Amino acid sequence: MSDFKKHNWFAVGASALVLIATLAAGSKFEVSLILSVAVYLGANFPDLDTASTPSKWAARFALVSSAYFIYVEEPIYGLIVCMIYISPKVSKHRGWTHKFSTPVLITATVLIIFREYTLIAVAFSVGLLAHYALDRLNPFEFKNWI
Ligand SMILES: [Zn+2]
Question: Does some domain include residue 129?
Answer without folding.
Answer: yes
